From TrEMBL, chains A, B:
Keywords from the named record: Amino-acid biosynthesis, Aminotransferase, Cytoplasm, Pyridoxal phosphate, Pyridoxine biosynthesis, Serine biosynthesis, Transferase
Compartments, as annotated in UniProt: Cytoplasm
Binding annotation for pyridoxal 5'-phosphate: A76, S77, W100, T148, D167, Q190, N232, T233
Gene3D superfamilies per UniProt: Aspartate Aminotransferase, domain 1, Type I PLP-dependent aspartate aminotransferase-like (Major domain)
Organism: Subsaximicrobium wynnwilliamsii
Cofactors demanded by this protein: pyridoxal 5'-phosphate
EC number annotated for this UniProt entry: 2.6.1.52
Binding residues for L-glutamate: R41
UniProt superkingdom: Bacteria
Details of cofactor binding: Binds 1 pyridoxal phosphate per subunit.
Protein name, UniProt field: Phosphoserine aminotransferase
HAMAP family: SerC_aminotrans_5 (MF_00160)
UniProt subunit comment: Homodimer.
UniProt pathway annotation: Amino-acid biosynthesis; L-serine biosynthesis; L-serine from 3-phospho-D-glycerate: step 2/3; Cofactor biosynthesis; pyridoxine 5'-phosphate biosynthesis; pyridoxine 5'-phosphate from D-erythrose 4-phosphate: step 3/5
């Protein structure tokens, strides 16, 4: 039974990654030991960590440009405070495009003044604000590239004379960008990169070490850089699965190749949403995410029929977040075009039936 | 080929846990989805989390006594700062019994005054200080129950009129203690409990909410308690493997049953260390850990012979930590008595050969 898994995260990963990970839990590298019982200081695991770090920089086109990749713990929620602790001396600019931006702002306020440069909160975050001004006296600008809950995505990033910090948790490695425009990128692994349990941090070293506060060791990016992302025991298995997923992406042709697939998937579902009178897209068209399509059913009476058909088609995880309601189809890198086709078929079939 | 894995952590876990975990990576609960791709909000995973939290309290005998169990990220190293952030208003007492105590002290100093009540640093931490006085004006007392690197273990904990905080990373669930004497217990999972990637925190709720500083959401125990350890995406797989390991321990008869096994293993190896003139124990006898036996080879000329014999016996992970040198046999809960017997046989064989 093939399940079409549209879960918003943790979410679908490549089948070959599941198979290799499952095998490694029994016998890693044919050494007779499980990956769960090997020392993180063993050569076998140090190689995994170094490979994962190198693949991340290579896929983002950031090799040799002064960046370091780290695999930390605690999710993007921990990065909300680490970014501020490490970079904010007095004031920082934040663009508020959704729940996660809002949470990032809340944590940053503990460490200084936050200039909220724009917000789409009044419209339940169904668009990305544009044309905002960023005060020049800020230590950095923070934004969220893709808003998983609302299905919006920033298409154009501002050009600024200050460090750019971006939470890319739900669209990293999914589309081509000039990543060298960013000085700090962070992303929970559990969307396009791996399982829950590790967080990728990519940081330009030159922006660090400029604040006067004393930073606890575990919260200090410089601690982790100086120890090669092994200051303390890393989340071994999560880093291994992430390495396999990044290797899978590289073998496919990297971000440029997967972006084409992601655009096809997005076009397929958004065409259906726009053409099928039973459904309505939530996000403004110009700001639609290629990762998470949010939509509602116009006629509540069809809800049960639609959900039964969805279930019969072995489609999983399309319930919308409680903040938006309706449905959300998350189509991360590992989601096959065919699975999106099956969801679209169910939507068309509902129109014929109704 | 059966490997005898004496690794200090991450380390051996029960074989049945490896088998069930490996299967869950392919198909969890026979739902057709990998445990790596399911939502952490799915009923299946919420059940895992609740079960793991309940098992932890049940095994420690802390059910219904005002404690909450949490599975967080970031290792004991993150607890060094969380403990201080959540509990220290002005001053705290720390017992310094090794590298990890020392690191905990370093982080706590960011948040207030640390009274180091005693230290065995001058003897490279080969014993546990006793008879120390704890100043009455401290917000809490902090200690490390077992010192993985040095092979020492606290046998008697002080009785104090202040909250007791204990880092039990390397001996939790290994011996019977009155755990209700402690107000905050934390432990990285990767010794007796599960894989690297999650940290158990057991906290008595009444000690929280008493400091005046603003605590960032992710660093605040109350945040995690209020959300049932699901404030943000938890490390799903690490929590699942931990749940399986705790269930295995419960099925065996809990801490009382495993303690007997652990004592047999410890007695076996320490007898050999004491009777075999080629080896010398590092830790003072009264303070020896039942988890980590540290010892040196008296005659350096036998090093290569011993290490070749160890390798031929499929023994893994007995190199000592660089701070101590020599050897360390870590004998966590899942280590069979038979594996310790095989190491002891190699040590005896070396004596016969030498």
């Amino acid at each position: 039974m093939k399940i079409h898994n549209f879960s918003a995260g943790p979410c679908i990963l490549p089948q070959e990654v599941f198979e290799k990970s499952s095998q490694a839990v029994l016998n890693f590298n044919n050494d007779g030991l499980s990956i769960l019982e090997i020392s993180h200081r063993s050569k076998a695991f140090v190689d995994v960590m170094e490979n994962a770090r190198a693949l991340a920089l290579e896929l983002l086109g950031l090799e040799g440009k002064g960046y370091k990749a780290l695999f930390l713990q605690g999710g993007a929620s921990t990065q909300f405070l680490m970014a501020a602790m490490n970079l904010m001396e007095k004031k920082a600019a934040y663009l508020n495009t959704g729940t996660w931006s809002d949470n990032a702002i809340k944590e940053a306020k503990i460490y200084g003044e936050v200039a909220e440069v724009a917000s789409s909160k009044e419209a339940n975050y169904n668009y990305i604000p544009k044309g905002y001004k960023v005060p020049k006296d800020c230590d950095y600008f923070h934004c969220t590239s893709n808003n998983t809950i609302f299905g919006t995505q920033i298409k154009d990033f501002p050009k600024l004379d200050m460090p750019m910090v971006c939470d890319m948790s739900s669209d990293i490695f999914s589309r081509s960008l000039d990543f060298s425009k960013f000085d700090l990128i962070y992303a929970g692994a559990q969307k396009n990169m791996g399982p829950a349990g590790t967080t990728l941090v990519v940081v330009k070293e030159e922006i660090l070490g400029k604040v006067t506060r004393q930073i606890p060791s575990m919260m200090d990016y410089q601690t982790h850089i100086s120890k090669g992302s092994m200051f303390n025991t890393p989340p071994v298995f999560a880093v291994y699965v992430t390495m396999l997923t990044l290797q899978w992406l590289k073998d496919l042709g990297g971000i440029a190749a997967i972006e084409k697939e992601n655009e096809k998937k997005a076009q397929l579902i958004y065409s259906e949403i726009d053409l099928n009178p039973l459904f309505k897209g939530f996000a403004e068209k110009a700001d639609r995410s290629i990762m998470n399509a949010t939509f509602t059913l116009e006629n509540d009476n069809l809800k049960d029929t639609f959900e039964t058909m969805v279930k019969e088609a072995n489609i999983n995880g399309i319930n919308g977040h409680r903040s938006v309601g309706g449905y959300r189809a998350s189509m991360y890198n590992a989601m096959p075009l065919n699975s999106v086709g099956i969801l679209v078929d169910v939507m068309s079939e509902l129109e014929r039936k109704a």
